[in-house]
Description:
By secondary structure, the chain is mostly helical. The protein has two domains: 1-38; 40-162, no CATH class. The chain is built from six helices and no strands. Helix 4 packs antiparallel against helix 5 and helix 4 packs across helix 6. The longest helix has 33 residues, at 130-162.
Amino acid sequence: MARWTARELPGLLARARDALPADALPPPLANVLYGFEPPGAAQFWWAAALATAVPLLVYWLAAARGPRSGWTTAAIWLQAMFLLNVFVPHLAVTLWLRRYTPGVVTALAVNLPLSLYLFRGALREGVVSRRSLALFALAAILSYGALGLALLALGRVLAGIVGG
């Protein structure tokens, strides 16, 4: 994935910048789009490791503490993030480029059905209502970009500390 990102992301960013001029965006979004640098391999590896390990810990704590705990709330929000990740960037970039992109098969074959299964079970067992599930989806949409940038920033720090 890191090699693919290094090879493909500069072109994707250029296309996005052509489609979305800086003056057409709110300043914070323009700053992100026009200031974003593709991550290096070590930075990406650390970000992906964190994006895997932290949710696993949250899911484990949710299972240990029960369906009414704050950990379960965090787990549902994280699962909403994983569901969003199926569509952005995996499916969206695959459709935009009209070719395979790393992670799209896992996203469609694992994350999509697992997310739907977990949400259906949470609804059936009364852990969440449809309204609260919609709010989790909204929270995921609003926090997705910031969390991704935070993971990349932490990945850069860890790559610098550990070497890479």
